[in-house]
Design goal:
heterodimer, A: four-stranded antiparallel beta sheet, 3 helices, 20% helix, flat, B: mainly alpha, Rna Polymerase Sigma Factor, Chain: A, Arc Repressor Mutant, subunit A, 67% helix
Chain lengths: 205, 180
């Protein structure tokens, strides 16, 4: 369709084209060789249905928070940095959040908060090879409640990756990266105490 | 569709095809031409940022765009309510000139009666309002409205007809009969 543009719409188009080109140039490049990524999840709690994560090496923002078509909040996390920025972004969307990124492989000591007394249906996660997504349906986090997320990532050692390649039938590909992940996600009914990190053991792939 | 966020040429095709819808969508909701310019920019920015999540199975591009546009306008209203300054990387106002401003104002004037209908929908429960807004104000089909809102077509039909009854009895406003 050839819509006739006025000067404003033409300038806007050029500005937006630049935005798109900028995104194109900063999008992470992915290799296409035989490559396999293995992740193990050491702890997945409460609402999460299984989150896997490898820290991004690209230049994309650490996170994005957007409202979806049906009012759901879609969170994409690309790197474990700027937890307070993500909390602020969620607050902008009316969601109180407590986000903790832990060094090494750890979880927060139990008893930080009291879970809400209802099923958390609709809270879903999306798994990508270099990011994770969390979708929070409208109304999932009510007034006075807090969305609580903690996670940590420990890249696998070369020895672990070598062992995987030796053990697992590879059907043409090889494992080149791997990570152990701990993650907890839930909804606190009331106050959330400070996270006391507790080391966790890596799960077996 | 997914390349709209990463390929400038693909974006331009989408922009030219859907600009008429966005022009009308905005003019039916806000009376201030400067705000209309900002919202137009913000809606297309949201398109760029969300394009990688578009799935053909979740509806036609127009339904997807309507969902995004609703959220942008709703977000704008919320920001106003909180007295926060809208922060946008592309300020539409900054790109305006007198002639373009005049054309936006003409569009806003032409949509005066539709804006009155839009405001009258405040009386409806939020879920019914969302369906009626897209069908009666923006001219989407019930199926497209359902896709835009992420609900089943049957649910959209039920909500529309409940809203129609309520508006007729309580507000003496008549919505047209629609079929999916």
């Amino acid at each position: 369709m050839t819509t006739q543009l006025d000067d404003f719409e033409t300038r806007l188009l050029h500005t937006l084209r630049e935005q798109v080109a900028e995104r194109e140039s900063t999008a992470p490049r992915r290799s296409h060789g035989p490559r396999r990524v293995v992740l193990t999840v050491a702890a997945v709690a409460a609402a999460a249905t299984g989150l896997l994560f490898i820290p991004a090496l690209g230049t994309s923002p650490a996170y994005s928070v957007q409202e979806g078509n049906a009012g759901e909040i879609v969170v994409e996390i690309n790197a474990p940095t700027d937890a307070s920025g993500l909390e602020r972004a969620l607050r902008e969307h009316g969601i109180a959040a407590d986000v903790t990124y832990l060094p090494e492989l750890a979880t927060c000591a139990p008893g930080r908060y009291v879970d809400v007394d209802r099923p958390l249906s609709g809270l879903t996660t999306m798994v990508g090879s270099d990011s994770i997504g969390v979708t929070i349906p409208p109304g999932a986090i009510r007034d006075g409640e807090t969305f609580v997320l903690s996670w940590s990532v420990l890249p696998m050692s070369q020895a672990e990756i070598d062992a995987l390649n030796a053990e697992i039938e590879q059907d043409g590909g090889i494992t080149t990266e791997g990570a152990h992940v701990t993650l907890t996600a839930g909804v606190a009914a009331g106050p959330v105490q400070q996270c006391i990190p507790v080391p966790t053991a890596p799960a077996t792939p | 569709m997914n390349e709209v966020g990463t390929d400038p040429d693909a974006f331009e095709v989408f922009y030219r095809e859907h600009l008429p819808f966005v022009r009308s969508f905005v003019a039916r909701r806000v009376a201030d031409p400067y705000t209309a310019a900002d919202l137009t920019a913000e809606i297309f920015l949201a398109v760029i940022e969300s394009a990688n999540r578009y799935r053909a199975t979740s509806g036609a591009p127009i339904a997807w765009l309507a969902g995004i546009a609703r959220n942008v306008v709703a977000g704008h209203v919320r920001k106003q309510a909180r007295e926060l300054r809208a922060v946008s990387r592309v300020g539409g106002q900054a790109l305006l000139d007198d002639a373009s401003l005049e054309r936006i104002t003409e569009r806003i004037d032409a949509e005066r009666s539709t804006r009155a209908l839009y405001r009258s929908l405040d009386a409806l429960p939020a879920k019914q309002r969302a369906v009626v807004e897209l069908v009666a104000v923006d001219g989407l089909s019930l199926a497209e409205a359902a896709a835009a809102l992420g609900i089943a077509p049957g649910a959209a039909r039920t909500r529309y007809h409940r809203a129609r009854t309520r508006l007729r009895t309580e507000l003496r406003t008549e919505l047209c009969e629609v079929t999916p």
